[in-house]
Amino acid sequence: MDPLWYKDAVIYQLHVRSFFDANNDGYGDFEGLRRKLPYLEELGVNTLWLMPFFQSPLRDDGYDISDYYQILPVHGTLEDFKRFLDEAHGRGMKVIIELVLNHTSIDHPWFQEARKPGSPMRDWYVWSDTPEKYKGVRVIFKDFETSNWTFDPVAKAYYWHRFYWHQPDLNWDNPEVEKAIHQVMFFWADLGVDGFRLDAIPYLYEREGTSCENLPETIEAVKRLRKALEERYGPGKILLAEANMWPEETLPYFGDGDGVHMAYNFPLMPRIFMALRREDRGPIETMLKETEGIPETAQWALFLRNHDELTLEKVTEEEREFMYEAYAPDPKFRINLGIRRRLMPLLGATAGGTSSSPPSSSP
């Protein structure tokens, strides 16, 4: 096996629950996905990235996990997953799954135990007697949350969450938390998965007087994650960082070849659309230069769209206004700091499947 297989991988993201329904219960499942592997293979796909399929109350489409070791029943069973994985590998396809390591669901047994007064697991999450701690740290989902703190009446304290109120952040300053996440990674890697998308990786640690993002402690935790992975399995399994940051903030995640193997090039993505509308390759060239210098064994993951909005966090205010005007003139197309439109209508496709005229350049 080529340990650098990810350097030219063609990755197809999919949601098992909405892909193909094999048992006619209204939900996609692993048996349906297994049956559709020939179709995906014909598309030229050689790597599948699966969105969360774990036990979850589904308040955030599965990114609110209540059990890392159980598959949500609508997706099938662990045996169904193994059959799918074996057939994918038999076709020479790799499989990347989510490692949601920043937060859990409030329904997770860890949090339910941690919120009890005097619980020995209290330190598994981040608590405060006041919502004034870490003041000034930005609220990411500003359309839905007004604070990074929510008061819990059972714990009689505030818990920290960088995303939705029902997704409390794990306390990575507690070594038991890191050990538990490593065990989750080992469980799925033992089954044969080929890599992990590290969800919301920049937000693992909190420090007063900082943005609580991309802290040196987070970079070191990523390096320990890779070390643990390679000590157990050798080369070949990969870590893919979801770090929606500027180049100078994302580059440290690669380390000196001892950090993540891949990271999404978030700053490049909106500039592809910007260049298309302006009919000017300049924004692409500029960002490609700014994202040079990664280790020889590392690779940027280049993408047009994924399940998130077309995020405009990493553009200037002027560029954001241009993108809104060009691609989301109707306010209902906008969410948080981004655009919530699928790729085809975004590029001018009509309901009938044909395309309207491509976007013209602005004068």
Structure, briefly:
With 363 residues, the protein is of the alpha/beta class. The protein is built from eleven helices and 15 strands.
CATH-assigned homologous superfamily of the largest domain:
Glycosidases
Q: How would you sum up the global shape?
A: globular
Strand order of the largest sheet: 1-2-5-9-10-11-12
The beta-strand count equals 15
The number of helices is: 11
CATH topology of the largest domain: TIM Barrel
Succession of helices and strands: EHHEEEHEHEEEHEHEHEHHEEHEEH
Radius of gyration: 21 Å
Summarize model confidence as the mean pLDDT. 93
Helix content: 25-40%
Largest sheet: 7 strands, parallel
- Unreliable spans are 350-363
Structural class: alpha/beta
Q: Can you give a write-up of this model?
A:
- Helix 5 packs parallel to helix 6 (216-233), helix 8 (268-278) packs antiparallel against helix 9 and helix 8 (268-278) packs across helix 10.
- Strands 1-2-5-9-10-11-12 form a seven-stranded parallel sheet, with helices on one face. A three-stranded antiparallel sheet has the order 6-8-7, with no helix packed on it. Strands 13-15-14 form a three-stranded antiparallel sheet, with no helix packed on it.
- 29% of the residues lie in helices and 15% in strands.
- The chain is globular.
- The chain has 363 residues and is of the alpha/beta class.
- The protein has helices at 30-35, 37-42, 78-90, 109-114, 175-191, 216-233, 247-250, 268-278, 282-290, 317-327, 343-346; strands spanning 11-14, 47-50, 54-55, 67-71, 94-100, 127-128, 149-152, 157-160, 195-199, 238-241, 262-264, 299-301, 310-311, 334-335, 338-339.
- It has eleven helices and 15 strands.
- The chain has two domains: 5-104 and 174-295, TIM Barrel (Alpha-Beta Barrel), CATH 3.20.20; 109-160, Oligo-1,6-glucosidase, Domain 2 (Oligo-1,6-glucosidase, domain 2), CATH 3.90.400.
